[in-house]
Amino acid sequence: MNAWSNIKAIVKRELGGYFTSPIAYVFLVIYLLLTGFFTFTVGSFFERGEASLVSFFTWHPWLYLFLVPAVGMRLWSEERRLGTMELLLTMPVTTWQAIIGKFLASWLFLALALALTFPVVITVNWLGNPDNGVIFAGYVGSILLAGSYLAVSSMTSAMTRNQVISFILSVLICLFLILAGYEPVTGLLSRVASPRVVEVVAAFSVMTHFEGFQRGVLDTRDVVFFASVMGFALFATGVVIRNQRAG
Amino acid sequence: MIKVENLVKAFGPKLAVNDISFTVERGEVLGFLGPNGAGKSTTMRMITGFIPPTAGRVTIGGHDMLEDPLPAKRLIGYLPENAPGYADMTVHGFLSFAAELRGLKGGARKQAIGRAVELCFLQNVLHQTIDTLSKGYKHRTGLAQALIHDPDVLIMDEPTDGLDPNQKHEVRGLIKRMGENKAIIFSTHILEEVEAACTRVIIIDRGRIVANGTPAELKARSPEGRLEDVFRAITLPDTVKA
Ligand SMILES: Nc1ncnc2c1ncn2[C@@H]1O[C@H](COP(=O)(O)OP(=O)(O)O)[C@@H](O)[C@H]1O
Ligand SMILES: [Mg+2]
Known about the structure:
The complex is a heterodimer. By secondary structure, chain A is an all-alpha fold. Chain A has 14 helices and no strands. Chain A is globular and about 55 Å long. Chain B folds into two domains: 2-75 and 152-241, 3-Layer(aba) Sandwich (Rossmann fold), CATH 3.40.50.300; 83-150, no CATH class. Chain B has helices at 40-47, 69-74, 91-101, 106-119, 135-147, 165-178, 191-197, 215-219, 227-234, and strands at 2-11, 14-24, 29-33, 55-60, 63-64, 76-79, 153-157, 183-188, 200-205, 208-213. In chain B, the strands form two sheets. Chain B has a six-stranded mixed beta sheet, with helices on both faces. In chain B, strands 2-1-4-5 form a four-stranded antiparallel beta sheet. The longest helix of chain B is centred in the middle third of the chain and has 14 residues, at 106-119. The radius of gyration of chain B is 18 Å and the shape is globular. At the A-B interface, helix 1 and helix 6 of A face strand 1, helix 2 and helix 3 of B.
């Protein structure tokens, strides 16, 4: 179909852009170093003495808080800065095709980064007998989490041609998505608000919905939550772009 | 091919384009002339569907740009102001991407790229990334991208900006040749350019059309027969603008 071949062309161009510059490789190295550091040092992977990847996945919401906006900040900011947005959007493609194509390319790149953490799975299988179903669920949750942050970054990068501002805005929004369900915060909140309110606020948090995946539970509601965040943020990207073009 | 009816664009309280109408048929080359800030780029952005008009209508080959944008856009090749390009792509990669979005596949794509490269003299820089190109090459890459699908309608915003005199001469020749079977609009503030390449001229000032005719007709308005005198007589320098 025509729409699909347009999206494919855009995905291909974006992904090509990553690997012609050294930035992609630098990112992958930093990503792997940081996951390693959090898993083995901060997360005390070995000291736990259990065959699971809890110490690996627990940190992902925090790790992604900076890594994902770093990938997403240039999505639309760069198009605006270079003026190529005018070129792209006067081609016979719809704004949606462009938004989805650019998003998918970055998401695939993040999926690649995540896939490169496979040695940790091998390690834990070599050391003990982990439940690989739980590990698989953790990976699914992690990629959905990354996609949600990325969609938010897509939205903030459409707002400005300045990548630094785009980065900061998206870190702030993602931080909110964490804190709304982060235990120290919900604890504090429950002192001043009713349990019902705390529950509603926490329902907006990625923490609440990521937790199940870490325990190996694939709950449709959690999947729907992440899909809604992505859908909403990508829709908002379209609205921002349309408003800008209207002047 | 190109039909523009009562086009208006307001940015806040400011009318960048104020009730512009004209048509361009196949075989015509329309020169869009006017001082800086007159509204040339804004008009072209509305014609190519990049920005929606505040009021008015653009129709390309019978397709309304607002209602039915994709068929309208398929007919157009567009060179935006300053010839933007993806900095990290090679010229070949960039043209290939443009061809792909234009629905060209396999052998047809290869052929289209070869033709555009030849027309715009890009053989020597094919594998250079766009951010390493000189201004002239960058502009010609943008032009090649606009020509890649051999469009019926060609819109170019200052296509000769930043070119040296030889390159300017070549691009004018190219426009003139292509004008024989396409509908072309290009903007410029170089007056000789209009005489060299256009079949018709529109002069716009502060968002309005202030003159519309063949180069010869406009020249006849000045006692010395010089386009420059006409231009200066009917447009205001931007220092006196409100
Ligand atoms: N996105 C925008 N927001 C606000 N004003 C704009 C915008 N784009 C253009 N303008 C204004 O509209 C007027 C016409 O600009 P433009 O079409 O670029 O002129 P030209 O191409 O003839 O030099 C200028 O005064 C410019 O400042
Ligand atoms: Mg201009």
